Amino acid sequence: MTNLTEEQVQALDSMIQRQNEILDINRSLEQHMQAMEQQHRQQIIDLGTEIHDYIANNVVLKSQHYQSSSLRLKPPTPFSGNPSYCDSFFVQLSLIFAADELRFNSDRTKILYAINCLSGSAFNFMQPYIKNMDEKDQPQEIFTSYAHFKKVIKTTFGDTNPVVNAEAEIRLLKQTGPAAIYATEFRRISMQLTWNNDALVSQYMLNLKENIKDELARRDPIQDLTILLNASIDINNRLFHRQKQKNTSSNRPSNHHSRTTNDVAPST
């Protein structure tokens, strides 16, 4: 191999330095674009909130002729008596009541709406009460107190062992998709448990994907569950974007290969 002259070495060093500078600029641009994308997303979210607040304050609440029919509220999925759906059913009702306080301004209105969203065994359970609903001398508490109505339904159809079932559910929970979904489901189940922070951290780590565990192992141990959840989501997102970059690079045609092919003279 021919030794390079000093001038050639300097020229080569200069080209390498320029290449590194270009790579640094490219990385800086990528970071800037990501920051701008995140900023634009937040602006869209903020604008949506402003629009919602404006409508709530200037269209609905200030309307002199309020009409409940003007609100298009999505009703909850009918509750047929499935214990696993009982809590979610009442959460959906709470959202509807909070979003339309003028319409649902009494316990009786809330109860009647909730009964209208029952089906199957749950509705059959309420039928004997409905038959005697109009007794004004001795009104049934199940039609006068929403808290009592909710208690009766949850006692009859709710999960009888929520803690035991939640423990079994959280031990079986594994990350099979994005960390954000795993973290959200883990947090939902953990709210039903009395486990301390250390136990939750240990259980969450147990069923994370191996590549995320590897990245977490390179960091100082994380003791707080919320910080761990956020860190795992961040790592998952970074690995996902990195894999996309690698896939894009592998699908890009090689300029070096093209030049080599064109430089080879055909056989004679």
Automatic annotation (TrEMBL):
Highest taxon above the source species: Eukaryota
Residue ranges occupied by any Ty3 transposon capsid-like protein domain in the UniProt entry: 73-247
Pfam families named in the record: Ty3_capsid
Coiled-coil parts of chain: none
Positions of region (Disordered): 244-268
Name of the protein: Ty3 transposon capsid-like protein domain-containing protein
Organism of this sequence: Mucor saturninus
